[in-house]
Every structure is written in C-alpha cells, then in structure tokens.
Amino acid sequence: MTGIQVGMIMKKAYLITEGKHEADILRAVLPDEILRLTEFIVGDGRYSAQSLAHSVLAMEQVPAALVLNADTNNSASVREQLELLRYSIVQASHGTESEVFLAVPEIEILLVRDMGFIAQFAEKKEFSDLEREFARLNPKKFLISALANESYDDIMLRRILDRMDKQTIRTIQNAPLIARLNDFITSVAK
Known about the structure:
The protein contains 10 helices and 6 strands. The chain is of the alpha/beta class.
C-alpha cells in the first residue's frame, strides 16, 4: 500500500472537500482512527475540489475520497451527479481506488441529525415538525434561522462544533454518509 508521509504518520488516503466548512465538520465527526489515516485537501468550491481530486489521483496515486454537497434533495439528480462524478474520477484514477460522496442536500445535514443538540444550542425547548422538515430540506438556512439569524460563518460553525458532546458525535457518525466514508477509508487503508 502506498501512502503519503505527513510528520511521522503515514497517511493512506486523501479526503477532498469543496470547502473549509465541509472539512471542519468532517474533522469534528470522523473517528480518530479514520482521521489518522486521512490527509484533508480543501478546495475552493465544487469544481476546484473535482480538479484537485483529478490531480491527486493522477499524480499521487493514493486513494481519494471526494466529498461534495449535492445542492439538491431530488434523488434522480443526486444519482445523476454521482454517476457523472464517479465516471470523471475513474478516468483520472488510473486504477487508484477512489470514491465520490454526496452530502444531500449539503454537509450541514450532519449537524441537524441531532435536533435536541441544535435546540439546546439555540436555547429552544424543541422544534416543530415544520421546522424539522425545513432542517432536512435546507440545513444551512435552518441553522441560520434557528440560531437567531446570526450569520453562518467560521465563528458560528466553530461554536457549534466545539459544543458537540460525545452523544451528538455518535449520532452524526451513524449517518449513512459518515458510515460509507468510514467504510471506504478503512477498506483502502489495509
């Protein structure tokens, strides 16, 4: 197995995200053993991340996971995006293991998996069914509205991530996206 040397730890896979927020969220919720095996590369948007994935796979020949926001809840659109992205990545990989992961609709969906935590963070007793549906469909907009219209920036995200307890992290780690990402990185790290 090839890998990349970072400090004294051999990294066995790249995890490429489309932005800093996506990387920060994943760093906060992925298990430590997965983080030890993974080197993050942060893109500057969706197309930047795709380009970085192509470059890494072509030049480094180290397994790579590309994590993007689907920017939709439409299952047909998500499937189509996955097919096109996987085809594109396979073309660049030259046989190196790679996978594409889409956060549906966006990575913040992970943060709203534990609505009790968000309610506590927002100092609210609970959320209505309508608010929960809004969170499912538009998690980033929901967070902005639930957190008293504060802007969703690096500072707000850091406050959310810093206040997550072990129970919230476990809840997020059970999300299908995180489970599939764990499985992929574990399988390529052998």
